[in-house]
Amino acid sequence: QTIGHVSLYVTRVFPSQDLLDRADFNAVEYINTLFPTEQSLANIDDVVNKIRLKIRRLDDNIRTVVRGQTNVGQDGRQVKEITRDIKQLDHAKRHLTTSITTLNHLHMLAGGVDSLEAMTRKRQYGEVANLLQGVVNVLEHFHKYMGIPQIRQLSERVKAAQSELGTQILADFEETFPAQGSKRTGGPSNVLRDACLVANILDPRIKQEIIKKFIRQHLSEYMVLFQENQDVAWLDKIDRRYAWIKRQLVDYEEKYGRMFPEEWCMTERIAVEFCHITRTELAKVMRTRAKEIEVKLLLFAIQRTTNFEGLLAKRFSGCTLTDGPGLKKSVSSLDSTNPFLEDEAGEDGSEKEDDLDRAKKPKAPDNPFHGIVSKCFEPHLYVYIESQDKNLGEMIDRFVSDFRAQGPPKAGTEDGGAVLPSCADLFVYYKKCMVQCSQLSTGEPMIALTTIFQKYLREYAWKILSGNLPKTSSNSGGLTIKSLLQEKEGFEAAKFTVEELCLICSILSTAEYCLATTQQLEEKLKEKVDKILVERINLTGEMDTFSTVISNSIQLLVQDLDAACDPALTAMSKMPWQSVEHVGDQSPYVTSVIMHIKQNVPIIRDNLASTRKYFTQFCIKYTNSFIPKFINHLFRCKPISMVGAEQLLLDTHSLKTVLLDLPSIGSQVVRKAPASYTKIVVKGMTRAEMILKVVMAPHEPSVVFVDNYIKLLADGNPETFQKTLDMKGLKRSEQSSMLELFRQRLPTPPSGADGGPSLSFSTPTPEQENSRIRKLEKLIKKRL
User: Fold this and answer.
1) Residue 241 reports pLDDT greater than 50
2) In this model, does residue 474 exceed pLDDT 50?
3) Is CB count within 10 Å lower at the N or C end of the chain?
């Protein structure tokens, strides 16, 4: 196939009419073309000779082509040899160039080393600085020729010159700036300035030694003036330390500012070394005189120190801190802001207690000098924590005495039911302490302060809130016949006064405020403390304590209203319901219950206006307490006649209406009761109505009565069924057969279900309820 493609390509390039050149050549057809007749065979010899001649020509052509290709190979070899020669010449040129360059470098190196040694002896540091760098650069080119003795000798001479320069420059600085106790022989000169430029090129240790010796000499006076045994070394004169270094830095800038290269940052290095020394010296003197440290003195020293650190942050970049001995960047989370000079709104009482919930402000850039000195105060912050413990203890005691002296919030005033002012005072002080402490340290002292906060949150909850809740001993005793008669005659049962109700609501509101603010306090503490300590900040126990105060307050309000209504319910159960002859208006006990509700609920609602959800909880808890109690008293009304049952049904409807309206009773603004509350009332009071409907139904035939009971009440408890029979006044013998029939008629519980019989019925829809009420009203009118 490949040969065919080649033949086709050749035919296209060299077209031919010769039959021998055709791809589909046929020998028989070609011979027939040459000899078409027998007579033409006579010329066969001529034809054969022509073909042989043609073959010889083709052979000659092929031979010529083959020989031509042989000559091409020879020509190629000749070209290759020429190229090789050119490459050799190119390599030779490159090597020659390199050799010339190396010889030039060698000449420069030799001359440079000679000049370097001469300039070093003459202390021509300006020229040395320019030459030395060039010599060092040239020497790098001979790194691979160090095996050559002459090159190695030059390299050793360069190293010797560098060593001599380092020693000589250090000696020059030592002579100009002698050690402590010696007198300076002169001020800065251009020689030393040029020497610093040379030190930049030498071993880095030379530069470090120059810096170290200069700073040590520059701060030697400080070490003498502020020795531990000196009066100015104590915390009360800490300002003098910072005033001294400020003067020294100004003096340095004027006298030596141009001597050292700018990139050495000498002014910052002096300040940083001063900070290291000061931190060490202050730590030493505070350990020695620890008993003399008072909180005011400590805070004064910290304030002045953090102010100084803030000044350093404004003046310097902190680029040298990583070079300082023993210093790590951001050694502490101390803040340079002075908490005691801040224009705190809380100082004049105008700061609002919700400051803890303010939006987060963008953080200021980190101060690289945080704690560079003030870190030394952290071991002594226990003095501050102990002081806050004492201050908060006195504050709680003052709250207690103020409450006793001023009494509870006055009813009918703006203060009635409001958050106690002491609560806001406590958290404003907490915020101040938290901010102060976070500016001193965000480590263990913050954890210690958090523990103090927890202690006094609990004390506030116990002493100020729970400790001032009204006692219920006045109405905790049992009911007497006299009290029942008094209640029946309209006598008001003993209960909390309006002032006491206002106090309970005020304590509830305060506990809610404390709960919410304690949660915010926990969040703020976690923001400020070191990340590794965040898990140790937990105020859940204190929040639970305030939740308990809230629950107890609501329970007191419920118990008070419950106790006020108890005599009315007892009077209901004592009435002779079998003797009722006609259905009239609502019974006196209903009027009494409604009266107590109208007396208490508006007061509670108005005083809990700022904590609406807890008023709703009160309504729900009261309803959950009253309805079961009402049903229990309903079962005690026995026996009941048909008319008596109708009267009770009317009373139940009246109570249901009042309970549905309970959240907005007595209010000019009518609010729709929460759906969760309405559901509880409808479900509970519908059960009471169903009980009375069963009582009104005839007990014969028994099967119909039992099925009707099961359908209406959906209660599989035989005891409840027996109570219903007692209300109807059935004898024990009749009840036995009824109970047996009741057990038989109960639906079979689902397979695998636990417990006793399970019944259910749906709460009537509003339309069904309205229809039932209309029927009941018609019945009452008919009876009347």
Assistant:
1) yes
2) no
3) N
* Helix H or strand E segment including 129: helix 125-140
Nearest residue to 511 via CA among 587, 440, 617: 617
Q: Which pLDDT value is given to residue 481?
A: 35
Query: ∠ CA(440), CA(444), CA(447), 5° rounding?
Result: 100
- HSE-up of 147 (CA within 13 Å, CB side)? 1
Backbone angles phi and psi of 575, in degrees to 5: -70, 145
pLDDT tens sequence across 341-374: 333 334 443 343 444 443 333 344 467 887 788 8
Q: What DSSP character marks residue 360?
A: P
Alpha helices in 257-373 (DSSP H): 266-288, 295-315
Rg of the chain on CA atoms, in Å: 55
Better pLDDT: 736 or 130: 736
Q: How would DSSP label each residue in 68-98?
A: HHHHHHHHHHHHHHHHHHHHHHHHHHHHHHH
Q: How many beta carbons lie within 10 A of that of residue 401, not counting itself?
A: 10
The dihedral through the CA atoms of 306, 308, 314, 320 has a sign that is negative
Rounded CA gap, 99 and 611, in Å?
Answer: 96
* Dist CA 399 CA 409 (whole Å): 14
Q: State the amino acid at position 311 in one-letter form.
A: L
Range 393-396 contact pairs with CB under 8 angstroms and sequence separation of 24 or more:
393/456, 395/425, 395/426, 395/429, 395/456, 396/456, 396/459, 396/460, 396/463, 396/464
Residues 6+ apart with CB under 8 A from 382: 445, 448
Q: What is the pLDDT of residues 545-569, one digit of tens each?
A: 999 999 999 999 998 888 888 898 8
Mean pLDDT across 502-526: 91
Longest dimension (CA), the chain: 171
Query: What does pLDDT average to over the chain?
Result: 75
- Three-point CA angle 522, 350, 399, nearest 5°: 65
> What is the C-alpha to C-alpha distance for residues 560 and 575, in angstroms, rounded to an integer?
24
Give the H or E element holding residue 213. helix 204-218
* DSSP3 helix / strand / coil % (the chain, rounded to 5): 75, 0, 25
Q: Please give the DSSP secondary-structure letter assigned to residue 234.
A: S
Provide the H-helix boundaries in 373-530.
382-406, 421-440, 444-459, 481-488, 498-528
pTM: 0.63
